[in-house]
Amino acid sequence: MNLILFTFIVLLGFTSYYFGRRKAYTIQSTNKRLTALPQFYGYYLAIWCAIPAFIIFSLWAIFEPTIVKLLILSDYSNQGYLDDELNLIYEKTKALSRGQFTGEITPFIEASAEKYLSLRSIAQSSKAVIVLSIIIASVAYAYKKISSNSRTREPVEKFLKAVLFTASLAAILTTVGIVFSLIFQTIDFFKVIPLFDFVFGTHWYPAKAFVRDSSEALDPTMYSDTFGAVPIFAGTFFIAFIAMCVAIPIGLMSGIYLAEYASVKVRQYAKPLIEILAGIPTVVYGFFAALTVGPFLKEIGNSMGLDVSAESALAAGGVMGIMIIPFISSLSDDVITSVPQSLRDGSYAMGATKSETIKKVIFPAALPGIVGSILLGVSRAIGETMIVVMASGLAANLTLNPLESTSTITAQIVVILIGDQAFGDPKTQAAFALGMSLFLVTLCLNIVALRVVKKYREKYE
Amino acid sequence: MNKNKEQLLNKRYKAEKRFRLYGQSAIFMALLFLTIFIFKIFSTGYSAFQKTWLIVPVTFDAELMMLEQNPSKEDLKDADYYDIALKSMADLDPNANEDQENELKRMVSYFFEREIKRELLNDPSLIGKTKDVYLTASDDLDQVFKGNYPRDLPEDQRRVTDYQLKIFDQLVELGKVESKFNLSFFTYPDSREAELAGIASSFMGSIFSILVCLMIAFPVAVLAAIYLEEFAPKNRFTDFIEVNINNLAAVPSIVFGLLGLGILLAVFQLPRSTPLVGGITLSLMTLPTIIIACRASLKAVPPSIREAALAMGASKMQTTMHHTVPLSMPGTLSGTIIGLAQALGETAPLILIGMVAFVNTIPGSPLDPAASLPVQIYIWAESAERGFVEKVSACIMVLLGFLIIMNLFAQIIRHKFEKKWS
Questions:
Q1: What is the DSSP letter of A218?
Q2: Alpha-carbon gap: B166 to the closest alpha carbon of chain A (Å)
Q3: What pLDDT, on a 0 to 100 scale, did the predictor assign at position A218?
Q4: At how many degrees (to 10) do helices A230-256 and A363-383 cross?
Q5: In percent, how much of chain A has pLDDT > 70?
Q6: Are B287 and B317 members of one domain?
Q7: Mean pLDDT of chain A
Q8: 3-state secondary structure B357-421
Q9: pLDDT (tens digit per residue) in B257-301
Q10: Rounded-to-integer distance, Cα B22 and Cα A254, Å
Q11: How far is the C-alpha of B83 from the C-alpha of B113, rounded, in Å?
C-alpha cells in the first residue's frame, strides 16, 4: 500500500513537471517573455506536487503506530494494567491481526484485533485521501502561480540550496548521534558505578556482573571492584606506545628519504607500495598477528628462556605499528615537501651536507607538522580494534611487560558487546562508558593534531 | 690543522652516508613487511582453492532406499539415502567392526548423503547399479592430503585416527582420491564444517552492505560538499561543520559501531545483524571521506570555468550544477570508490551491530541476517579447527582482490577522465 502510494507520488511529480513545462511553452507561444527557462516551470510544479505529499506521508508513518496503539489501549486504561502488560497486550493484538498468534485467544484480544484491523484500514484510506487532496491543492496553487508567469527559477533554486544545506548538516547529525548514543548509557552506568571507581579502580572483571533479573533491586556493592578501568587505559596506551615505537622511526625515516633523497623513479614506486600497507583491512593484520607474529615471538622467547605469552602486547603493538607506518610516512613526506626550497638553498650555501640540512633546518621547520602526523597516528593506534581483539589477550592485566597479554578499550567493547546485549545491564553500559572515554580521548588528539597541521600549512602558504 | 679539517669532513660525510642508510633501511623494512605479509597469506591460502574428494563406489540398492518398482521423480527425492550412503562407506573395508564403520563414515562430510542423492537424481537409471561417486572428504583428511597435517603426532592428539589414515592411504594408492578446484568455497554459505564452509553468504552480505552504504553516503556527501564548497558563507557555523567533518574522518570505527547499536538498533528498532543496518553504519563512516574528496575536486576546477558560465548569464546554481559539478565528478567518483573500499574492509562496527551471527543461508535482500567478508575472516580465525586456517587466508585473498580491483578502478577513473588544468 505504502509502496503504491509512494510510486504514485513520484509519477505525479513527473507528470506535473511535464505540465509545468508545457504551460511555459504556451505562455511563450502567446509572445510573452518567460521569466525563466521552461524546465524551471516544470521543476516548480513538480516540487509543489511531491514535497508536501512526502511530508504528510512521512509524518503519517511516524505517528500512525503511536496513535493506533493509544486508541487500542484506551479500552484497557481503567483496568489497572501495568505498562509492560499493556505493551504485551498490544503485541498480542498485532500478532493476532496478522494471523501469527500462537497462544490462548481471549475474547478481549480478539475484539482488539478486530478494532486494530479496522483502525488500520481507516488509517490507510484516509492517508491516501489526504495525500491526494494535498497534492491536488498544492499543484493547483502552483499552477495558478505559473500561469501568471511569475518567478519560478528563484524558488526552485532556493529549494535546491535548502536541500544542499540539509545534506551538509549530516556531519553534525552524525556527531550528535555519536554523543547521544554514548551519553545516556554512560550516565546510567555512572549512576551505578561511581566515577571514581571507574577511573581509579584497578580491577576489571565485567564477566562478574552477570545479567540481572529486572525485578531484583540494584545493589551497587555487588559491582564494586568490577569496573576499575585503570588496567584497560594502561593497556591501551601501552599497546599504542609499542606501536608508535615501531611506526615513528620507520615511518619518519621513510618519509624523509622519500621527500629528500629518493629519485623520481624510486618515489614513484615506493610511495604507493608503502601506502598499500594502509589499505589492508585491519582484520587481516589481526589474523597475521595472531597466526604468525604471536607464535613466532613465543618461539624466540622460549629459545631465549623467556616466558612469552602467545597473545603478547608486543605482537599486537608491533603489527599495529606496521599498519601505522604509511600514515606517518606520507603525512611527514607532505609536510617536508612543503618546506620552502629557500631554506634548503640557504643551508647548502653555507656548506651543510644534505643530512645536516635535514636535521638542523628542515626538521625543525617541519616539526609542528610532523608532531601533528604523529598525534594522528597515536589516535589511530588507540582506536584500532581488530588487531587487539585477535592478537592480544582479552583479560585485563595491569602490567608493563610487553611479553604478557593486556587488553584495550576497543577490545573490551567488542568482548562485552559481541552476541546479545541487554540494555540497562551495567556490563553493557560499561562498554558505552568505555566508548565515551575512547571518543573523548581521540577527539582531543584529533582536534589538537588537525589544528597543529593547519597552523603549519598556513605558515608556508 | 689541515688534517683536523679533513678528519672533520670525513666524519661529516660518514654521518651523511649513515643517515641515508637509515632512510633506505626504513623503506626496505616497510616493503619487507609488506612482502612477508603477502607471501604468508598466499602460501597458507592457495591450497583452499583445491578440495579433496574421495571416489567411493556406491550401489544404488532400491530395497535399501525403500523404493518401489518404477519410482517417479518425487519418489526419488523422498527416498532414504542414508542407508546406502552408510553402506558404501562401510564397504570400503569389508572387515570393519562397528566402531570402525563409524570412523569410515566420518572420513567424508555429512553432505555425503546429499551428494549421492544428487548423483541419482541426475541419472535415475542408476538404480540397482554401482557407480563411483565423488564425496567431499572430511576437512582433516583434506588437510592430510594437502600435507598441512602432521601425521607423526601421537594418535590421541590427532583428529584423524590411524585406522582412517590406513584406509585413506589405500584409497590414495588406488587413485581414488582426487583434488579438484574448490567451487563450493564460492557457492556455499558458512558452515561449522571446514570442508563445507564457503563465502557465498558473507560475500552477498558485503555486497548488500556496500550498496546500502553507496546509496546513502554518495548523494548526501556530494550535496554536502557542493554546499560547503560553492554556497556556504564564511561564518562560524560553516567552520563548525568543517571541524565536524575533519574530526569524523578520524573517529575510531568502533565508535560508529556503538552509534549503530545505540541508535539504529535500540532507538529505531531496525532488524539486527542485517546488511541494512551495517550499510547505514558504514555510510556514516564513509561520509567524511567522500565529502573531503568531492570538495578537493570541486576546488580543483579553475575559477575561469565558473566565471565564463556566470558571464553567459547562468545563475550560480546553474553554473554549479551544469559546469562545476560534472567537471569534478572523476575526482569525486574515485574518492567514493576508495571510501567504499575502506568500508568493505571494516570489521569492528559490523561486529557490534550483530553481523557476526552464524548465518548458513545466502541472504537474498539487505533485510536478511548476514555476515560480511571481513567478519567472516574474524569468525573463521577464531575457530579452532585446522581446516579453517587456509579458508581464512583464501577469504583474505578474495577480499584483497576486491580491494585491489576497486583501487585500480579509482586510479583509472582519475587518470582517464580527470581534466588537467594548466
A1: P
A2: 31
A3: 53
A4: 140
A5: 93
A6: yes
A7: 85
A8: CCCCCCCCCCCCCCCCHHHHHHHHHHCCCCHHHHHHHHHHHHHHHHHHHHHHHHHHHHHHHCCCC
A9: 999 998 888 888 888 889 999 999 999 999 999 999 999 999 999
A10: 8
A11: 9
Give the chain A residue whose CA is nearest to the CA of B17.
A355
The verdict on a CB contact (< 8 Å) between A283 and B392 is: no
d(CA B312, CA A246): 58
The C-alpha atoms of residue B47 and residue B39 are separated, in whole angstroms, by 13
Task: Return the DSSP state at B320.
Answer: I
Which residues does chain A have within 8 Å of residue B320's beta carbon, measured at their own beta carbons?
none
Q: What does the pLDDT look like over A23-69, one tens digit per residue?
A: 888 888 887 888 888 888 889 989 988 888 888 888 888 888 888 88
B222: domain CATH number is 1.10.3720.10
Distance, in Å, from the CA atom of B288 to the CA atom of B245, rounded to the nearest integer, reads: 5
Secondary structure (3-state) at B50:
strand
Q: What are A358-375's pLDDT values in tens digits?
A: 999 999 988 888 998 899
Residue B415 has pLDDT above 90, yes or no: no
- CB–CB contact A380 B33 (8 Å): no
Task: Scan for cell 596506551, then name that residue.
Answer: A237
Q: Please give the radius of gyration of chain B, using alpha carbons only, rounded to the nearest integer.
A: 30
Lowest average pLDDT, out of A77-81, B58-62, B97-101, B169-173, goes to A77-81
Chain B residues whose CB is inside 8 A of the A383 CB are 251-255
Q: Which pLDDT belongs to residue A121?
A: 87
**Which residue type, as a one-letter code, is found at position A435?**
G
Same structural domain, B114 and B259: no
- Provide the phi-psi class of A359: left if phi over 0, else alpha when psi is between -120 and 50, else beta: alpha
Range of the domain at B119: 47-182
Q: Which of A171, A253, A258 sits opposite B248 (nearest CB)?
A: A171
The CATH fold of domain A230-460 = MetI-like fold (1.10.3720)
- What does the domain layout of chain A look like in residue ranges? 2-168, 230-460
Cell of A228: 576499575
The Cα angle at residue B270 between residues B266 and B276, in degrees rounded to 5: 130
Please report how many Cα atoms fall inside a 13 Å half-sphere around the Cα of residue B161, on the Cβ side: 12
Contacts of A283 in chain B (CB under 8 A): 345, 347, 374-375, 377-378, 381
Helix axes B82-90, B98-105, angle to 10 degrees: 110
